[in-house]
Amino acid sequence: MVTPVIIPKLGVTVESCSIGSWRKREGEKIKKGDILLEIETDKTTFEIEAPASGILLGIFFKERAIVPVMTSIAVIGKEGEEFESYKPKLEKETKEHLEQPVKEKYEEEKEIPEVEKETTVDRKTVGDEDRTFGGVSPRAKQFALAHGINLDGVTGSGPHGRILEKDVVKYYQTTSRLSSLAGKLQNEGWTHKGTYSGIGGMIIRKDLRRPGKKLSIIRSTIAKHMHSSLIETAQYTISISARANDILSLRKKIKSLTAEHSLPNTTINDMVMYAVIRTLVSYPELNAEFIDGKVYQYNDINLAFACDTPRGLMVPVIRSAQRLSLEELSLAIEKLSNEAISGNIALDDLTGGTFTTTNIGSMGIEYFTPILNTPQVAVLGICNIDLKPVKIDKNVQFIEHIKLCLTVDHQVIDGAPAARFLVALKDNIENFTNITELKI
Amino acid sequence: MYDLIVLGAGPGGYEAAAHAGAMGKKVALIEKEYIGGVCLNTGCIPTKTLLHSAKTLQLCSEAENYGIKTGKLEVDYEKILKRKKEVVSLLKKGVEGKLKRSGVEVLWGKGQLLSKDTVAVNGKSYKAKNILLATGSKPVVPPIEGINSSNVLDSTTILELDKIPKSMAIIGAGAIGLEFAYFFNKMGTEVKIIEILPNIAYQMDTEITSYLRKSLENECIDFSLGSEVTRIDDKGILCTRENGKTEMIQSEFVLNATGRKPNLENIGLDEIGILYDSGGIKTDLQGKTSVPGIWACGDVTGRCLLAHVATREGIVAVNNMLGKRDIMRYKAIPNVIYTNPEVASVGVTEQILKQEEICYKKSILSLNISGRFIAENEKKVGYVKVLTGREFHEILGVHIIGGAASEMIFGIAALIEMEMRVEDIKEIVFPHPTISEAVKEVICQIK
User: Fold this and answer.
1) Would you list the domain boundaries of chain A?
2) Which class for B180: exposed (0-12), middle (13-18), buried (19 or more C-beta within 10 A)?
3) What integer pLDDT is reported at residue B47 of this predicted model?
4) Does residue B53 sit in helix, strand or coil?
């Protein structure tokens, strides 16, 4: 019996994902539960296990292919079993779509029609995998091969951007020569920096840069998100420092009691996040999103927190955080962090935040400007704890303070309300025992 | 108003002037002493003339190796010096003709900058859109007690000797010291070279220069390496070796060949505010100094004290001042020592690759692989060494000792400039039978 390997539904919002690296090859014998491949969504990566034992009869998608969820991507069965019917229709369509333009005939090709068939195959070896339309005329192809030209840089003037011989000739005559080494490197994907340092303006090795590394889907999502955050908002950052004796002494107590009383290991970060939740309850204008000119304030505080994982930055969300006690909050943070780090986090736990915190203070950072997690209107950066001189009566005492940086969107939140929130948060941290019911 | 005024008519200055003149520009060339500079008058050309006499003598004395019997060989030193003069004067006429054809006006006297666009010569001032400083270099006088004694010569005054000295101590085993050592040794002078560094010709590949040292030692040239001259007096030259031991060397003459330094004095650098230090005038790769409109090339920049580098730098500067983008590259500069055997090299040396931790591949081969070398070089040393990049096998440096190394080296400079790889060079046809075949062979050994 043939068993298809199907991409599972990964969450309510995920429609498609990218095929990552295949761990198994076609024809390989596999056991149920073996890891077949990794798939990537815009938020995380997943491992797909073999649903049955047998031979991996066919793989339908190569790495980096974008595939909708619930699509069969491979089949497992016995040697020789028929599996063509499991091939998703989608792939066939794509193939036809690719082949179609090449079948069209153009006048200038008539002289050497027999080469035409090979053109589609060879084209890829010249290094233009992304060219899906138009193709390359056989004569252009021959000229390129004879003159060692990489067709990636050539703009086609034929129908659908088809590269004609005259395009390649023009390219050859107008672009700078490459040194022997530079030519080889360009074919390996090195790109021109824009300088011409060799003899007569020849492009030499130092004028080229090594091939760059393509961003993973997660990373490029982060990149887009961060960039659009800066483009689309009017964000600014204010900062304050809060006396930390209260939370430090509580932390000390908890640490000494954790083992005996099986209490969760509540960290300084957890306490600050708890104070944030308690403060947000009184300042709902910061627990909001700004979308298409409209502000959405929420009663539920879905607190997102930035988490450094091997796959990059992830932002798990604690739902209805205002209902949680300090202990429950600690447990929730620990659980979600572990899941994010190990890659097992559910996609729904990565969406729907209404306010975000980010903490790089444990690494000693004294001040930073967190970037808004749009469409949220505020993000709190938690910094390190440092001694600060405080004048008490006539003396100066050094007291430990934690620094906090609040970034808000000035489109929605002015300086005064942002300041009021931050001052209230400071008060809550300084008088932490007043806001927690934790009894030790 | 001139388009260009050049200070100094050495190989940097006169070539640049002629180049600008040939492009239809109004050019003045200021020279205080002689057209052709040190190179033509007291450097490259006269020494190569002398060296050829020495090489001819050596060939004759070894003629028996090739089945030719000669009578007693005699040196006619007067004739050697006369020929040197004739060669220099012939070439000087050639340069003067070139300047004339290019329409360059020669102004005799010492030029001095008055402002960014004005130069004074003999109390008269001349204006120009661009000024090129090509004032060259002079021998370094190291701070050694007695260095100014009358028997201490430098590379210029040694050419004025009218008799062959009985003995000579040479301080410095660079190209100048080695070439004079070879020449006087062949003329019958007892020669000893004192070098402070542990290797001779330290800028060249030490593996190759060690063969040169052995070869010269076989000719009875004595080397004292890692040895510093501390005093020169009537009794001789006092040297201190690395281990602290001292040594007294007796000789009729002493040649100071410790190096050259840029001519920076009395040209008005400070007055105009041109950036420089004792190493030379600071320039960029186009030849620009820190003052717009003022350019510099050659030894006065201290970048690379070679005539051919000065010429190229001068032309690069002229091209840029006339609006043609050009840039100086130093990765394929040939370097030659005209002893017998001669040493020629281009590109980077192995010691530099090691020092800069660049990954490389290496191959070295005896020139005896070449039929022509064996036929023409009885009992002679010859090696060729190639260094390539490890990843892509592009040529980084080639170093040759023996044969007509200096005449082959330009071809390898081209290979480096074109960033040719071993795979490409395999496709080039080399003539047979030549010594150049060994060059191809050694390159093809890189795998």
Assistant:
1) 3-87, 106-209, 218-435
2) buried
3) 97
4) helix
| Joined tokens for residue A108 | 């200038």
Which residue type occupies B354? K
pLDDT of residue A171: 81
Say what the pLDDT of residue B330 is: 95
Q: What is the complex's ipTM, to 2 decimals?
A: 0.77
Number of domains in chain B: 3
End-to-end CA distance of chain B: 59
Residue A132's pLDDT band, with cuts at 50, 70 and 90, is very low
E-only strand ranges, A147-210: 191-192, 208-209
Contact A372, A378 (CB under 8 A): yes
How many Å from the N-terminal Cα to the C-terminal Cα in chain A? 61
Nearest to B111 by CA among B229, B9, B39: B9
pLDDT tens digits for range B268-310:
999 999 999 999 999 999 999 999 999 999 999 999 999 999 9
Dihedral of CA atoms A329, A333, A335, A341 in degrees, nearest 10, equals: 180
Helix count and strand count (H, E) for chain B? 13, 24
Q: By the CB < 8 Å criterion, does A249 face chain B?
A: no
Cβ(B30)–Cβ(B107) under 8 Å?
yes
Q: Is B432 a catalytic residue?
A: yes
- Give the whole-angstrom CA distance, residue A196 versus residue B333: 19
Confidence of residue A440 (pLDDT cuts 50, 70, 90): low
Q: Tell me, what's the pLDDT at A12?
A: 67
Interface subset of B 302-341, CB within 8 angstroms of A:
325, 327, 329
Residue of chain A whose alpha carbon sits nearest to that of B286: A197
Whether B420 sits inside 8 A of A184 (CB atoms) is: no
Residues A228-242 have a mean pLDDT of 96
Average pLDDT over residues A235-257: 92
- pLDDT (tens digit per residue) in A201-218: 889 999 999 998 888 888
- B230 with B254, same domain: the answer is yes
Structural fold of domain A106-209:
Dihydrolipoamide Transferase (4.10.320)
Determine which of B329, B358, B392, B418 to mutate to test the interface with A (most A C-beta atoms within 10 Å). Answer: B418
Residue B108 domain boundaries: 2-138+261-321
Query: Hey, are the CB atoms on B421 and A197 less than 8 Å from each other?
Result: no
Interface probe with A: pick from B419, B424, B426, B428, most Cβ of A within 10 Å: B419
From B394, which residue of chain A is nearest by alpha-carbon distance? A181
Q: Looking at the structure, do residues B42 and B119 belong to the same domain, yes or no?
A: yes
Share of chain A above pLDDT 90, in %: 43
- Which amino acid appears at position B227 of this protein? S
**CATH fold for domain A3-87:** OB fold (Dihydrolipoamide Acetyltransferase, E2P) (2.40.50)
Under CATH, domain A218-435 is a member of which superfamily? Chloramphenicol acetyltransferase-like domain (3.30.559.10)
Residues B345, B430, single domain; the answer is yes
Q: In terms of DSSP H, where are the helices of B189-306?
A: 206-218, 269-272
Q: Give the C-alpha distances (Å, rounded to integers) separating A287 from A322, A378, B413.
A: 11, 7, 69
Across the interface, whether the CB atoms of A179 and B392 are under 8 A apart is answered no
